[in-house]
Design brief:
The chain is mainly α. It contains eleven helices and three strands; from the N terminus they run ββαααβαααααααα. Strand 1 (17-22) and strand 2 (29-34) form a beta hairpin. It comes from Trematosphaeria pertusa.
Length: 215
């Protein structure tokens, strides 16, 4: 959904409210969302709320016990207000840019799980924006940040091989990684990093390796 080029459709406000229970029992939070909005965005909800297929279609109650309530809250905030910058939905003034990026990754993964391609694409573009040069005041050439282990694990455990977000992370390290901005990653025990990430990174580094000069 591109709010800059399309009028914001509010016809969903007359649709029934769906109750979404997010998180484990001890940390569970209840959300309410208009069926017309979330079913339009998410194929997962569109299928789950079909009354002729699932009980949830009649009860209008969906349980997401394995999801993070904070991440779902940010996801809903973007659905209801796509006209507001994603960073404004996610961030408070005291959150470092790196943590904003991690939260962006987590909403991206949730959107992928919910089969919500428009939101997934919006957050992927935000990931690219946050790592582009000159996002930080006084930034010079190169990315504004290099993803942390938490961001890498989030993307690689929540997406499939070849996902564009995986490619974005690998390309950042291939093109801009060095001993300084990659120090935290270098110090990280290999077991803490997804094997698929290490494999993708090695393949990318080899593919972009400069040919050695013949003696």
């Amino acid at each position: 959904m591109n709010s800059d080029t399309q009028p914001y459709d509010t016809s969903f406000v007359t649709s029934p409210l769906v109750k979404v229970l997010v998180g484990s029992e001890q940390d569970q939070i209840q959300f309410q969302v208009h069926e017309g909005l979330i079913s339009h965005q998410s194929d997962f909800f569109a299928n789950a709320l079909k009354p002729d297929r699932w009980a949830e279609g009649d009860s209008k109650v969906i349980k997401l016990p394995n999801e993070d309530p904070e991440v779902f809250h940010m996801y809903l905030a973007h659905l209801y207000r796509p006209d507001i910058a994603i960073a404004a939905v996610i961030a408070r003034a005291d959150i470092p840019l790196g943590q904003v990026f991690v939260k962006t990754c987590k909403v991206y993964v949730l959107a992928a799980m919910l089969m919500d391609e428009p939101t997934k694409n919006n957050f992927r573009h935000e990931m690219a924006r946050l790592t582009a040069p000159n996002v930080l005041p006084g930034a010079n050439a190169g990315p504004s940040l290099i993803p942390t282990t938490e961001a890498i694990v989030s993307i690689y455990t929540g997406t499939v091989d070849g996902d564009p977000a995986r490619n974005l992370l690998v390309n950042l390290f291939t093109e801009h990684g060095n001993a300084t901005n990659g120090a935290a990653l270098i110090a990280e025990p290999a077991d803490n990093l997804p094997q698929a990430f290490l494999k993708d990174l090695m393949a990318s580094l080899l593919a972009n390796r400069r040919p050695s000069k013949e003696v």
